[in-house]
Amino acid sequence: MKTIFLTRRERFNAAHRMFRPEWDDAKNLEIFGKCSNPNWHGHNYTLFVTVKGELNPETGYVVNLKTLSKLINEVIIDKLDHKNINLEVDFMKGKIASSESIAISIWEQLEPHIKMMGIELHSIKLEETENNTIEYFG
Ligand code: NI
Description:
alpha+beta; Tetrahydropterin Synthase, Chain A; five-stranded mixed β-sheet; 4 helices; binds nickel (II) ion
């Protein structure tokens, strides 16, 4: 059997604020800098979902990319795109809205669905800006 890694890119725009509610604005500013702005700010995020599976010799596919894209959109993108991550995203409730934390949550949301497709989730890569990218391998 031949194992193949396959990556689907999706994009979303969302607002967030880095802060701990138990800290005052001065302390939040000291720790999180501009990202703690009480009036929020946004990013154009790029999400890379990499899955791993065996090549199906009949189709030449590991997985149908249209099916994978539809899944990522239904489970993740529709919930994040044009939303406030701190206030409106169910799977981010009570969590810090850092890229690290968002990527881990995306993994947790997607992983069971990916498994049901007969493939494995390999990594979640989240690009917050051109310069800042984080990657999570579960
Ligand atoms: Ni930010």
